[in-house]
């Protein structure tokens, strides 16, 4: 799709400028970028392998993904691994956030797999260090949904043709969902036109009729349903039940500086995933404080599935579909791109 080509081209051009700007002095690489105050030394954390905590700053997708990391911090899982983690909402959606990671504004970033693979295929020095969000094995448990107005003629995914679809970012995992629907319906390319909007604005845009439908994640799915919108499809479980949707990335330079920090970060993510799997209701009860969510709403939402480790089957399937749909020119070296 044209939007994907544009996103990849813009990302590559921006990244080349950033990498060139950072490579002019002795040593080269991103370490020569202006100090953002988020590096371990600038934040006053312990040095790699030292006795103190290593300070890391992370950007994560608003909503469910952000709540997961915040819960891990609250539970002390990152501190247990020697990390003082600060997590904030991502500055943008999909690949548009990646330059901030390359500039050193963040040490870790949560991304959807499509955006991560797009960035790596474009030649950016990034590695997937831990698994992120995954969908459920059953449609009714999917944390994503395609929603429409109550009186919309759209009743199911079969009716999603010639529609404007609200998405939180162009060129991300929504591209897989849209192409999967188009392929299943036997529709022509371009039968669904993505319109980029932040999650909260998608709900309003559907209600106004600015878009015909929108892809949302929790808690926005349940918020929209409570406002009368209808779920007509569960897009991500439709690609593959249990599909890994998100990942967490670091730059190669950050990993080379201190490999154990990446390992410790992954261990903390795994511990958090284990905590939620063992006691999902404790996580649900913590959501109102973690992401300023109404307690009644927290009781209703579909929880994201968290496995901790990267699911290579999902990552490879995502890359294969991206190549099939023309979102990338060729598949990446998955073993090289994924650590932990």
UniProtKB/TrEMBL annotation:
Ranges for region Disordered: 130-151
Signal peptide residues on this chain, from the entry's feature table: 1-21
InterPro entries: SsuA/THI5 (IPR015168)
Pfam families associated with the record: NMT1 (PF09084)
Source species, domain of life: Bacteria
PANTHER family: ALIPHATIC SULFONATES-BINDING PROTEIN-RELATED
Protein's name in the database: ABC-type nitrate/sulfonate/bicarbonate transport system substrate-binding protein
Keywords: Signal
Domain spans labelled SsuA/THI5-like: 71-282
Species for this entry: Blastococcus saxobsidens
């Amino acid at each position: 799709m044209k939007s994907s080509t544009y996103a990849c081209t813009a990302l590559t051009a921006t990244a080349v400028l950033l990498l060139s700007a950072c490579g002019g002095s002795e040593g080269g690489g991103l370490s020569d970028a202006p100090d953002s105050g988020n590096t371990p030394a600038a934040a006053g954390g312990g040095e790699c392998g030292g006795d103190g905590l290593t300070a890391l700053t992370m950007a994560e997708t608003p909503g469910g993904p952000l709540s997961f990391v915040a819960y891990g911090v609250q539970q002390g899982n990152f501190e247990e691994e020697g990390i003082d983690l600060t997590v904030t909402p991502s500055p943008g959606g999909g690949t548009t956030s990646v330059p901030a990671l390359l500039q050193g504004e963040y040490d870790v970033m949560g991304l959807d797999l499509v955006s991560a693979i797009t960035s790596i295929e474009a030649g950016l020095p990034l590695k997937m260090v831990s698994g992120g969000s995954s969908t459920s094995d059953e449609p009714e448990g999917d944390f994503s949904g395609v929603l429409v107005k109550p009186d919309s003629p759209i009743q199911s995914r079969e009716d999603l043709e010639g529609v404007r679809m609200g998405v939180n970012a162009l060129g991300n995992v929504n591209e897989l969902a849209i192409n999967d629907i188009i392929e299943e319906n036997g529709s022509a390319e371009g039968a669904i036109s993505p319109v980029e909007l932040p999650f909260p604005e998608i709900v309003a845009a559907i209600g106004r009729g600015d878009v015909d439908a929108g892809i949302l994640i929790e808690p926005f799915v349940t918020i929209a349903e409570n406002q009368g919108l209808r779920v007509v499809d569960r897009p991500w479980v439709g690609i593959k039940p249990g599909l890994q949707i998100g990942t967490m990335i670091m730059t190669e330079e950050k990993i080379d500086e201190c490999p154990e920090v990446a390992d410790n970060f992954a261990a903390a993510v795994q511990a958090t995933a284990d905590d939620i799997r063992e006691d999902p209701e404790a996580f649900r009860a913590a959501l109102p404080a973690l992401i300023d969510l109404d307690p009644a709403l927290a009781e209703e939402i579909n929880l994201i599935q968290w496995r901790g480790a990267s699911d290579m089957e999902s990552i490879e399937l995502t890359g294969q579909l991206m190549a099939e749909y023309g979102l990338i020119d060729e598949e990446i070296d998955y073993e090289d791109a994924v650590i932990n």
